From TrEMBL:
Record's keyword terms, sorted: Kinase, Transferase
Domain Carbohydrate kinase FGGY N-terminal: 14-285
All residue ranges annotated as the Carbohydrate kinase FGGY C-terminal domain in the record: 305-514
Gene Ontology molecular functions: kinase activity; phosphotransferase activity, alcohol group as acceptor
SUPFAM superfamilies for the chain: Actin-like ATPase domain
Family the entry assigns: Belongs to the FGGY kinase family.
Pfam hit, one: FGGY_N
Annotated GO biological process: carbohydrate metabolic process
Encoding gene per record: 11440770
Protein name (Swiss-Prot/TrEMBL): FGGY carbohydrate kinase domain-containing protein
Superkingdom of source: Eukaryota
Length: 573
């Protein structure tokens, strides 16, 4: 293998960068889509109730550290890296005319210029926007979420007037990363369509162009922005929110700028592809991973894909557009060109499991036990569940939570109810604070998350989808109990790709497309995706009967919450 100082002239390496909620990661892939090496670097985050903020300066520094470390670890020389692609959370970045950070924080701290995707400061603004009758809302499930950009922008305008007047560019984080790397502020159809109410289907006439292009942004609904009180963003041909857009993988500017190349330890001029939101990049890195034996009943592309991380996104693609209440979309070409994307999601999944574990009385003891055994807390909890199952003589692990039920809406319900005010519920608590009780609570939370996914799948199928297979990637997909419980509860096989780092692969594919080595994003996906393991649901009828009963209780927990909400509202009226 070539050393960092002896590049292999024949080797082409594609670099993908993924900025998640807690870290920036970099991964290097060969021409078969195999991971050569990766590294991560933590990023700072400020949390204060509903307010969650980051720093774009800190994020870029973390990206640089991760890229250099990945190249060193993989023994890849700068000359071997042929392209770069970015994926990131759908966080909102504010910069001035010099590209310097502008504070979006009540603290006034200029470092804090990123409103993180999970920030819920704009719930009231979202409710007001949703009274609009704009056609733009039809394409996001009938209502914007406080996690989308229009409510956050309105919050800043109403609460931080000085910052509002200073901002020269508002950008989704993945678009900002591409801009920071290339100096080209062309926006991605993925970010603009999925988070900014941009109508991507305005560009249908360009999809078959052989020459990739950046397109004038003709999909903004100016009347919508005027109606919600953000008409000033329409000025200058939408200069602050995006004058031009491009399909994912389109080569930006003249490639990597000399300044960015020096910071990243790469060569200037290498192609940089138009970016994707992290979950959508995972889709690009996994969707062509379905083995032929599992595609029966699917229509050209796999039926649904789940990105299981801090939160979970559920994405289904189809040739026809489907309007589904409470499900975002349909978004045209937001992930795979020419396909309509519908997107469900759960705002807290990995974050919820961390919350449940870290706030339990047994948390520190459990963490110490796991550290002494040199395994993760999740691995220890899974081992504990196996032991409890044996001790209780149960035939399957799921049966251990007969008296314990969790509604996982600790950060509201994104889909399919679309109720940001929904609250989490734990039913069946006792005074027990042991490690064993935490293991059961962890299992019940995993099941609650899986029942939420089942609710989304059933809702999508009731409105025209034909979902019978689930593709999974992200950190939680590496947890065998998490995946098996989902398979048993949803009742369909779950496919795990060969490459577990699907988001990094998806980001790398964007750069590979920008090199023109592949004729299309789809061609690159087929070349670089590969199938891995298939997890089938249990064929024991007792398992299905059990989960059907628990699912009925799960659905009832929200109905009871609505009833309780009404009772208390009347009492306070």
């Amino acid at each position: 293998m070539a050393s960092p100082t002896e590049p292999s002239a024949s080797r082409s390496v594609f670099l993908g960068v993924d900025v998640g909620t807690g870290s920036a990661r970099a991964g290097l892939f060969d021409e078969e889509g195999k991971l050569l090496g990766s590294s991560s670097s933590p990023i700072q985050i400020w949390k204060d109730g509903a307010f969650v903020e980051q720093s774009s300066t800190d994020i870029w520094l973390a990206v640089c550290v991760a890229v250099k470390a990945a190249c060193s670890k993989a023994k890849v020389a700068a000359a071997e890296v042929k392209s770069l692609g970015f994926a990131a959370t759908c966080s909102l970045v504010a910069v001035d005319s010099d590209s310097s950070p502008v504070s979006v924080s009540r603290s006034g701290d200029s470092r804090r210029n990123v409103i993180v995707w999970m920030d819920h400061r704009a719930v009231d603004q979202a409710e007001r926007i949703n009274t609009s009758k704009s056609p733009a809302l039809e394409y996001c499930g009938g209502a914007v979420s406080p996690e989308m950009q229009p409510p956050k922008l309105l919050w800043v305008k109403e609460n931080l007037q000085e910052s509002w007047s200073m901002v020269f560019r508002w950008m989704d984080l993945s678009d900002w990363l591409s801009y920071r790397a290339t100096g080209d502020d062309t926006r991605s159809l993925c970010t603009t369509v999925c988070k900014w109410t941009y109508l991507g289907h305005a560009h249908m006439q360009y999809v078959n162009d052989t020459d990739s292009r950046d397109m004038e942004a003709c999909g903004w609904d100016d009347e919508f922005w005027e109606e919600i009180g953000l008409g000033d963003l329409v000025e200058g041909h939408h200069a602050k929110i995006g004058r031009s857009v491009a399909f994912p993988g389109h080569p930006l500017g003249s490639g990597l700028t000399p300044t960015a190349a020096k910071e990243l330890g790469l060569l200037p001029g290498i192609p940089v592809g138009t970016s994707l939101i992290d979950a959508h990049a995972g889709g690009v890195g996994v969707i062509e991973s379905v083995p032929p034996s599992e595609t029966e009943g699917c229509h050209d592309l796999p039926c649904i894909y789940a990105f299981c991380g801090t939160s979970t996104c559920h994405m289904a693609v189809s040739r026809s557009k489907l309007f589904i209440p409470g499900i975002w979309g349909p978004f045209w070409s937001a992930m795979v060109p020419e396909y309509w994307l519908t997107e469900g999601g759960q705002s807290a999944t990995g974050a919820l499991l961390d919350h449940i574990i870290e706030n339990h009385a047994s948390s520190i003891h459990l963490a110490n036990r796991a550290a002494s055994q040199k395994i993760s807390v999740f691995e220890l909890l899974n081992k504990l569940l196996e032991t409890i199952m044996t001790e209780q003589n149960q035939s399957f692990i799921g049966a251990l939570t007969e008296y314990l039920h969790v509604l996982p809406d600790f950060h509201g319900n994104r889909s399919p109810i679309a109720d940001p005010k929904s609250k989490g519920v734990i039913y069946g608590l006792t005074l027990d604070t042991s490690d064993q009780q935490l293991a059961l609570l962890y299992l019940a939370t995993v099941q609650g998350i899986a029942y939420g996914t089942r609710h989304i799948v059933e809702h999508c199928n009731a409105h025209g989808h034909k979902i019978n297979t689930l593709l999974a990637c992200g950190g939680l997909s590496k947890n065998p109990i998490y995946i098996q419980e989902h398979a048993d509860i949803i009742g369909c096989p779950i496919i795990l790709p060969r490459e577990s780092e699907s988001v990094l692969l998806g980001a790398a594919i964007l750069g590979a497309v920008a090199t023109k080595k592949y004729n299309s994003l789809r061609e690159a996906m087929k070349a670089l995706n590969a199938a891995g393991q298939v997890i089938h649901p249990s064929n024991d009828p007792k398992v299905k009967k059990y989960h059907d009963a628990k699912y009925k209780i799960f659905r009832g927990l929200y109905e009871q919450q609505l009833s309780n909400r009404s009772v208390m509202a009347q009492a306070l009226a």
